[in-house]
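## retry 2 of 3
previous attempt timed out at serialization; input unchanged, resubmitting
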Amino acid sequence: MNTSARTTRRSIAAALLGLLTPLAAADTTPATMLDANLLVTTVINTGLTQPIGIVFLGANDFLVLEKASGQIKRITGGVLHPTPVLDLAVNSASERGLLSIALHPDFPRTPFAYIRWTESSTGADSSVTLETPLLGNRVDRFIWNGSTFTQDANIIRMRSLQTDNVAVPGHPGTNNAGNPAANHNGGVIRFGPDGKLYIFMGDQGRRGWLQNLSNGPFLTAPFVDDTFGGPAPDNAHLSGVILRLNQDGSSPADNPFFAAGAAIGGEVGANIQKIFSYGHRNGFGMAFDPASGFLWDTENADDAYSELNRIVPGMNGGWIQFAGPSARFADFKSIETTQFGSALQQNRYPPTRVAYTTATAMSRMFMLPGAVYVDPEFSWRYEIGPAGTAFVTGNALGSEYAGTLWIGSARSNQQVGANGGSLYRLRLTPDRLHVDTSADPRLADHVADNLFRTQKFEGTESETLQIGTGFGITPDIVQGPDGNLYVVSNTDNAIYKISRRPALVTNP
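## retry succeeded, writing output
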């Protein structure tokens, strides 16, 4: 490929990079519900900068996380408190920063909060890509005293530094020229109904065992992932996973690969014991279905096949051998090798290396003992940017919404047009195992076949799923104590509330 083509490819990649970038633009159209029974109102839109998450302490009392400032702010009765309850020194380059919070299941009697953030190596907030430790993505436990947080214990440290523009010893040069990356950190953490802590860690651009490459991205020895080692999941290569941990950070003995990790031993074995599922790319949404207890996640596409997954213990999601349902494998490869610059971000493993048949791709997957591949429950053919996600319980929004799953967007409409900034609502089947697509025969295959568009986010076959527009980047959606939905808009610097529209009263 000539220099001009490489430059063009990098420019396209930069334009479409992840979400939550500091210069992301707010939507110029107001947040609007497409269902006349629902009403959207603004809870707060002043005093917040790049909000990314929300957690309720009580009715009309919640905390908001700011991605780039590293601050957690408190809002009570719609009023912003003047002093943050916590201020961390974060690195917020690209998709890094203060990312997620989960309160202890017995909060406030057990006054712990678990916070996911990316550490700055300077001791101050930074947006410089290289100013983070190698293991700069971390989860820490904090103690709440009623007004502020105090750091208590580190739970886990994970990879942050991506220096894939550095040549790997024993291999000629590097084909990831240019600046190092800072994306694919995942970020969302949740407590499950089992009281365990679940952590979504993006693939960090790694290409090792957990990305279904037994020998890493290279065709010749040394078989490593990068300058820091791999392809086995040592501390620097534990990525593309959902981890399941005890509240103190240890590994539950009933984790799916606990025995396999014990047999391997060492740092790699200890990390394998932490894994609940692997073979994931990157995502920003994770929610437990209160009715069934199942965990669901949203995952972004590279170019082809955004996913909604129901996660089962020991699941291998298939990345990087393919994305989307296995029946669409040939289409996945065709899109990735012929469109959008023909790249899979980490150029040491180009899409031309993807297998030619589904069977071959399956045979190449790295399967830990007891691992099982599971197709996504729903997909979009081209990237639609699914982000924050939440289930609705109860009838506060109306009985027709009980049990529905809501998903936000990873790009604002101002950024990408089309379906950017949208909210989606999906229904599940009565057994809560699958997405109910009966309302739209086009979705019987559980794929929305949206159309090619340079900026992606094309909405064909999502018309019956789309329920809101103009919400910007929505990294978090939470159901409040009042039963309403609260939507965090990173680009609008606002918290929106979705509630039932009051019925019109007419005089007799």
